[in-house]
């Protein structure tokens, strides 16, 4: 039987103090902000406190952040999150970031499949969902390739400079 959260190429692991500089760079990359939920920079101190205070208990925190590493070198290439965890309704949101120098290699798809296996087999969730800006074609393609389907449109959901943009809700049910 395969181990949870790893395959022959990637491993998902808990954040470590050594990830501080990498998390700091990703959280403060303003090019990523428009694709996610960040709207302000994070200090090194606040990220350090997050790493210290984070319980790594999805039932307490209602979220789970995992670092994506290459098994062969242990190089960290991204993060993936379960957020808005709802154990009663058995669902969670999914967020993923693969560092720009590691994109277009199939890692994102593998990460989503590893996370899905953990969420569906181990946490016994019924569904995962993602809220994606309507014009983020690469994320829409990624989630579609891994079996998520478009299930709704949130009109003017995300602020973007002087206007608002629509967001898609994509879901994957545990069959």
From TrEMBL:
The N-acetyltransferase domain covers 10-175
Query: Which UniProt keywords are present, listed alphabetically?
Result: Transferase
Q: Name one Pfam family in it.
A: Acetyltransf_3
Listed PROSITE patterns: GNAT
> Which GO terms fall under molecular function for this chain's record?
acyltransferase activity, transferring groups other than amino-acyl groups
Q: Can you tell me where the transmembrane regions are?
A: none
Q: What is this protein called?
A: GNAT family acetyltransferase
């Amino acid at each position: 039987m395969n181990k949870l959260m790893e395959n022959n190429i990637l491993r998902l692991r808990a954040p470590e103090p050594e990830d501080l500089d990498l998390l700091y760079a990703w959280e403060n990359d303003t090019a990523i902000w428009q694709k996610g939920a960040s709207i302000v920079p994070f200090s090194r101190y606040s990220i350090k406190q997050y790493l210290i205070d984070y319980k790594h208990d999805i039932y307490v925190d209602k979220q789970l952040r995992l670092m994506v590493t290459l098994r062969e070198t242990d190089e960290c290439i991204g993060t993936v999150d379960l957020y808005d965890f709802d154990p009663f309704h058995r669902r969670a949101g999914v967020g993923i970031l693969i560092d720009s120098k590691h994109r277009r290699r199939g890692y994102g798809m593998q990460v989503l499949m590893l996370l899905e296996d953990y969420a569906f087999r181990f946490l016994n969730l019924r569904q995962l969902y993602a809220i994606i800006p309507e014009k983020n074609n690469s994320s829409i393609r990624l989630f579609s390739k891994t079996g998520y389907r478009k299930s709704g449109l949130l009109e003017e959901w995300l602020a973007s400079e002087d206007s608002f943009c629509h967001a898609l809700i994509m879901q994957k049910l545990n069959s």
